[in-house]
Write a structure and sequence with these properties.
The protein is of the alpha/beta class. The protein has helices at residues 15-26, 47-62, 86-92, 94-102, 167-171, 175-189; strands at 7-12, 31-36, 66-75, 82-83, 109-119, 126-136, 152-154. Strands 1, 2, 3, 4, 5, 6 and 7 form a 7-stranded mixed beta sheet that branches. The structure holds inosinic acid. Inosinic acid (IMP) binds next to strand 3 and helix 3.
Length: 191
């Protein structure tokens, strides 16, 4: 593999996402470069469609090969809400709003899903997904991470929320880490 082809831009405005993803791709020898980009969230049920649209837009407007990502928080007791609307719901209701909606329901199961789309300028995007199962906590815990991290406890963890973990600990379980691992394996094997 040639040196230049071992790097790719991550078009995102979320530095925390970038830091998590860059740790993953680095283990495959892929240098992820930060490209500040505000994605336009199209109305779609499938996160791959949202990520693909964002990747195509970023690749076209920045004339660069990029990856873009869309993630969502799916709460079983709320029939998968907020799902593809997570960004808007986080801005409006926040973690406390989700805790109120969930209330003291017994079934606290939830998932995070991530879709990562790779796109070269004027080419079709290719998507990779990752998911993690867990529980909605009873109250927010931890000061790390971002978004819904303080209220999500991964099933395979030790009972701590994502926000109580260091980046590498979250990466051992997270939806994003799984999607970026899939992307990095494909990226390194396809050149
Ligand atoms: P986005 O549209 O992909 O940026 O994410 C949708 C919403 O889910 C945003 O409010 C994020 O803060 C939240 N979110 C995405 N990924 C994560 C995560 O890894 N942990 C916690 N919240 C997340």
């Amino acid at each position: 593999m040639r040196g230049a082809s071992r790097s790719v831009y991550f078009a995102t405005k979320n530095k925390a996402k970038y830091l998590e993803a860059a740790r993953i791709t680095a283990t495959y020898g892929v240098h992820l470069r930060y490209l500040p980009f505000s994605k336009q969230e199209i109305q779609a049920e499938d996160l791959r469609e949202i990520a693909s649209f964002a990747a195509m837009e970023a690749a076209r407007s920045k004339v660069r090969t990029v990856v873009a990502e869309d993630a969502g928080f799916f709460v079983d007791a709320l029939k998968g809400f907020p799902g593809p609307y997570s960004s808007y719901v986080f801005k409006t209701l926040g973690t406390s709003g989700i805790l109120k909606l969930v209330g003291d329901v017994k079934n606290r199961k939830a998932s995070f899903l991530a879709a990562v789309s790779y796109c070269e300028p004027n080419r079709r995007p290719i998507s990779f997904t990752g998911t993690v199962r867990g529980l909605v906590s009873k109250k927010p815990k931890g000061s790390g991470g971002f978004g819904f991290d303080p209220i999500f406890i991964p099933s395979k963890g030790d009972g701590r929320t994502f926000a109580e973990m260091q980046i590498d600990e979250k990466n051992a379980f997270s939806h994003r880490a799984k999607a970026f691992r899939r992307f990095a394996r494909w990226f390194t094997s396809s050149r």
